[in-house]
Amino acid sequence: MSSTSCKELQYPDNLEGIIDKEFSRLQGLTYLDHTGATLYAKSQIDAYTHDLQSNIYGNPHSGNPSSELMLDTVHQVRNTVLAHFNVSCEEYDVVFTHGATEAIKILADNFNWTPASKFVYLEDNHTSVVGVREIVAQNDCEAICMFLNSGKSAFDLKNYSPVKVKNISKLGDSNGSNRTGNIFAYPAQSNFSGCKYPLSWIHDVKNNDLDLNMSFLDSNENWYVLLDAAAFVPCSKLDLRENPADFVCLSFYKIFGFPTGLGCLLVRKSAEDMLLKKGYFGGGTAAGYLATSDYFKPRINLHQRLEDGSIPFLEIMALQHGFNILNKIDRSMKAVQAHTFSLIKRLYNELVALQHLNAAPVVKVYSHTDYSESNLQGGILTFNIQRADGSFIGFNHVLQLAASQNIHLRSGCFCNTGACVRLLNLDPENVKHIFQGGRTCGDHIDVIDNQPIGAIRASVGYMSTMADINSLLQFIKESFVQETITSVISNGDIFYDASSAINTSHCSLSLEKIFVYPIKSCRAIEVKQWELCSTGLVYDRMWMIVTDFGVCLTLKRENMLALIQPTLDLKAQTLTLEADGHSSVTVPLDLINNEQNMLEVNACQSKVCGDRVLGYDCGPEVMTWLTDFLGYKSHLIKKNNEPRFSKVNKAIHDENGLSNLQSITLTNEAQYLLLTRESVEHLQRQMKKSQEQFNSDSLAFDEIVSRFRCNLLVAGCKPFEEESWTGFVLKNKLEMVNFKFCGLSSRCSMVCVNHKTGEKGLEPLRTLGTLPPPNYGNKQQKRRNHFGIYLYCECTESAIAVGDEVFLHN
């Protein structure tokens, strides 16, 4: 499509041209997490950076020419924000915050709560709204949750019943000095299901037309509405003149991607006098004060009173460029709403129609709507995947498998436990027991007793296309639709009582292969014998590759690492890196302890980097080689000698009151990872069945082993028997080496990377997710996305060799 024809077309007919011009970085990627954060446009960032380079913007508090320019710009941006919601500065004020969450907190902290005040909120509210109840309780007020009566429409307030969550401890009306104020809070659009609650509720609440069967509510009380618009405004028009909510919170990165960490609280002028209960005052909020006496005079304007300290003025300036882009695309937001709804409706219709061969549904959708009306449903679809027998596939597994296809989704409860419990039909008391038992929001637990405790969310933005929807649909069809019910679920050899299998007489166990991985996420070196040290195999994961920002690269982030083959020459004391089509590069194993070569690396997005790691830069020669190979500036870093400890081993020792923690290098979890030949062969057999069902490619045995990146491969047991081992002894000619179990290895999309091409597929993670968990006596595992076991060794100086005998602990 030519640029000329693009200009002649209106959105969304010109979307192809918009994608080419503004979002070319989306090539080969399916981004469906716009409710989490939408994407910024190229020209938006170009205009912002040009603005920064063309002008001098000073602190708006300073009063000099650059300050005046910034002050005028911020004032203009406030007007732009209000105009977007069809109001003016005479009707509303804009209080800039760090995001929607801080906007809610500022409201809660400054609202004139009295002992007679009530905070009423919908069950389907974001965590940040529900959290207001804690501040309400501190002010001796009532917090009341409105939950939907079973089987009733979610769009009629009469169908909700109240439950007191925080009870008042005092009665009264604050001595009558100030009128009692109450807040009713609800989302314009659920961030869990995407359903849009009626904006007419604003009028109903403010006109005391609640009729909620709450006898404890006085119809003469003053009600104010807090509208959480964070999930609504990115793809829908909010007209505050037509629907005058008193308080509105939102985050700007959800509207146009940049800047992050900036939101606002919109306050209706008629409600300003309810925000006078401010305690702390910071720079810029004081019209005058004395340090030596209790005197403080606040600023006149509301936003001046509430915006403590210097506002993020350069980020606020960036908003103008975001609104400019959005207005060029669709100032009215009507076309954006129609387009995004058409996408999500198509996705819904296709998913609910998917069936396995036995006519069982593939997808369970969680919603209050049938996706037929755009005024009731936004661009979100939340679902789980079911097998042909009705059992659920863990949402974390689906997320990881989608990641292997570069499809970006989100899983969990999305900081909305109320909607999650309601729509998944969970028992609140059971959920409470789960949390009390150690489960936390966002952890790996996703299915308990075949009941999912979260879901998968796909959400669209104005730049989403039908190709994105087709990509997700194709992924689900290829990955989960069972067209032949020769299901591995009925395969009897996976179910066994592990306790009866653990003895040394039923088979002969031996160490078949040893693998060392000098560089994290690069290829392995297979060896016949190797020395052990206090952190595991000598030189195992001693090096890592980092970006110019010090971010550790892993296979999940950079697939090309699978093509780098390291080689260790112990006689020459060198490490060599090579890859097909590239010359090799060599670095010494021992680097001079030179402070100039030291690079502090904080790879906070890697599991290995829950710890800060200090290492040594291996020099410019290998940096040039890596930069040429990967296409961006990269460094090879060798870990220093500062100890780092295994988290899974620490958990075991904490539980047993022990203190001898095991040191590790740059491994994710533990010193050693073990696979068994029989488990790999079992997975390979099931992959062949998957090939029949999903028309996928099977993998050779050695390729499966290389993808799961084990250190030790043991042969001579039953499939998955290793998961019940407590430990074992390796017996060689010289000594006995003792290994102990410290956890199961959870798997992610990195096992889908082809170590010959660097490309990602669906296997073996897809087939792994179809395997039922084994039954270890009374301990039924919750899911099957683990493969292999973690070990630690109590011997600090020893050696092992292929052929060593394995004797299990009793």
How is this structure best described in words?
By secondary structure, this protein is of the alpha+beta class. It has four domains: 92-250 and 260-312, Type I PLP-dependent aspartate aminotransferase-like (Major domain) (Aspartate Aminotransferase, domain 2), CATH 3.40.640; 335-480, Aspartate Aminotransferase, domain 1; 488-511 and 665-808, Beta Barrel (M1 Pyruvate Kinase, Domain 3); 515-642, no CATH class. 27% of the residues lie in helices and 23% in strands. The strands form ten sheets. An eight-stranded mixed β-sheet has the order 2-9-8-7-6-3-4-5, sandwiched between helices.
- What is the domain total for the residues? 4
Percent of residues in helices comes to: 25-40%
If classified by CATH, what would the architecture of the largest domain be? 3-Layer(aba) Sandwich
CATH superfamily of the largest domain: Type I PLP-dependent aspartate aminotransferase-like (Major domain)
Strand content: 15-25%
The rounded distance between the terminal residues' Cα atoms is 70 Å
